[in-house]
Design brief:
Layout lengths: L8 E10 L8 E2 L2 E2 L3 H10 L8 E9 L12 E10 L5 E10 L6 E12 L24 E3 L1 H8 L9 E7 L3 E7 L14 H17 L5 E10 L8 E12 L2 E9 L5 E11 L17
Antiparallel strand pairs: 1-5, 2-3, 4-7, 4-11, 5-6, 6-7, 8-9, 9-10, 10-12, 11-14, 12-13, 13-14
Length: 289
């Protein structure tokens, strides 16, 4: 039997990740960081042309370390480590070189680890393929305005304020309208990165209200892109809370276009506290202050 645990081909592809000014609007703890969805976009852009898999079918994504952006830099030197397996799967890792103290020690820091799957994009099975019956989950929703969301809960700059019109939350999940961003030139093979990034903001706010925690994306089980999202377009976003594992909150995410067609589905989005010091949400957002 063919051994599928060993890659048949391994390539290291040098990257220069461009840093347009708007990326500095995405910051955590006072530091500008590359959004996870943008890191995925850079990996997808640099895939070897001979690989026949589908970039729109992604599994087992992990975001182990934040990629800090130097505001004075024009690009980030990085490496895309691509491994192809006999069954057509591709494992991609995005790494950068980090210098130790006094530059005596250099080591590779991993920022993305993801599988791209073989074959062509197909339909998504299960209930997430159905059109949304309502614009918000069952139960009386707790409403957070767009301004308060970004002023107090997810304090990003203008380019990353792409939840539009606020959100409606219950214990089960969240409904919101998200925007494809104002930068058509930022689109890539995965579409626009902004709608899914905004869906992660929505999940973060749910965690602040119902779990009293400020959480950030650290991976997902599976992502299917049926119709790539576009800049300057509006999408309906549903985020459903699913059972997590200890420190990790988990969500299923669905994005629909204005015709209520499913355009993107993420299963098992994983979010947790990052950094050494736990952040406490404002008292007004917490269900139990």
């Amino acid at each position: 039997m063919e051994n599928l645990s060993t890659p048949v081909e391994k390539i290291a592809i040098p990257l220069a990740i461009p840093l347009p000014a708007y990326l500095c609007d995405h910051h955590i703890g006072g530091l500008a960081v590359l959004p996870a969805v943008e890191a995925l976009q850079n990996v997808a852009r640099s895939k070897p042309a001979a690989w026949g898999g589908d970039l729109c079918r992604q599994e087992r994504a992990v975001f182990p370390h934040l990629l800090i952006i130097d505001p004075g830099a024009g690009e980030i030197p990085a490496l895309h480590e691509h491994a192809l397996y006999a069954d057509g799967r591709c494992l991609s890792r995005l790494t950068t070189l980090r210098s130790g103290r006094r530059r005596k020690l250099n080591r590779r820091m991993e920022h993305v680890n993801i599988w791209f799957m073989p074959g062509k994009q197909g339909a998504v099975d299960g209930p997430e393929a159905e059109p949304p019956a309502k614009d918000f989950p069952p139960g009386k929703p707790f409403v957070v305005s767009e301004q308060r969301l970004y002023d107090e809960l997810v304090p990003f700059g203008p380019a990353y304020r792409n939840v539009k019109g606020g959100i409606m939350m219950t214990q089960d999940g969240v409904a919101a309208t998200v925007y494809g961003g104002d930068f058509p030139g930022a689109e890539g093979p995965l579409g626009s990165s902004f709608p899914l990034d905004a869906a992660m903001h929505v999940a973060c706010v749910w965690g602040q209200r119902y779990r009293n925690r400020v959480v950030f994306p650290v991976g997902f089980d599976r992502r299917d892109i049926l119709i790539p999202t576009r800049a300057e377009k509006i999408y309906l976003c549903h985020v459903k809370a699913i059972p997590g594992d200890g420190a990790v909150l988990r969500f299923d995410v669905r994005l629909y276009d204005r015709d209520r067609r499913l355009v993107e589905a993420v299963r098992g989005l994983m979010m947790r506290d990052i950094g050494g010091e736990k952040q406490i949400p404002p008292a007004w957002i917490r269900e139990v202050a």
